[in-house]
């Protein structure tokens, strides 16, 4: 059976998010830390080449927090658009 994201529950919508510093990221969903059971967001920068591809995690509470900038308070990551489900091996 192929691995699909629809099989897993996520605390935030999967899709493209814009970081407050303007870089785009693909959010795959939330995962749970095995030691603390803290919810973490699993994401990757868009536009990576195969040689630089990396996945990142950040605590859900930090991912969804508001940060102060020159323009005032803004979300650390802002939802841009959803992406369709993917299966293992998709790019």
Could you give the topology of this structure?
Layout: E1 15-19, E2 24-32, E3 39-45, E4 56-59, H1 60-63, E5 66-69, E6 72-75, E7 77-81
Antiparallel strand pairs: 1-2, 1-7, 2-3, 3-4, 5-6
Kindly describe this structure.
This protein is mostly beta strands and 91 residues long. The protein has one domain (5-81): SH3 type barrels, CATH 2.30.30.320. The protein has one helix at 60-63; strands at residues 15-19, 24-32, 39-45, 56-59, 66-69, 72-75, 77-81. The strands form two sheets. The chain has a five-stranded antiparallel beta sheet. A hairpin with a 4-residue loop joins strand 1 and strand 2. The radius of gyration is 14 Å and the shape is globular. Residues 15-78 form the DUF1653 domain. Pfam families: DUF1653. InterPro entries: DUF1653-like_dom (IPR023387), DUF1653-like_dom_sf (IPR037135).
Q: Descriptors for this entry?
A:
91 residues, SH3 type barrels, 5-stranded antiparallel β-sheet, two-stranded antiparallel ribbon, 7 strands, globular, disordered C terminus
Determine the CATH topology: SH3 type barrels
Overall morphology: globular
The run of helices and strands is: EEEEHEEE
Separate helix tally: 1
Q: SS-based structural class?
A: mainly beta
Task: State the end-to-end CA separation.
Answer: 18 Å
Spatially, the strands of the biggest sheet line up as 4-3-2-1-7
Domain count: 1
Strand content: 35-45%
Number of strands: 7
Main pleated sheet: 5 strands, antiparallel
Fraction of residues in H or I helices = under 10%
Second-tier CATH architecture = Roll
Are there runs of 5+ residues with pLDDT below 50, and where? 1-5, 87-91
- What is the CATH class designation? Mainly Beta
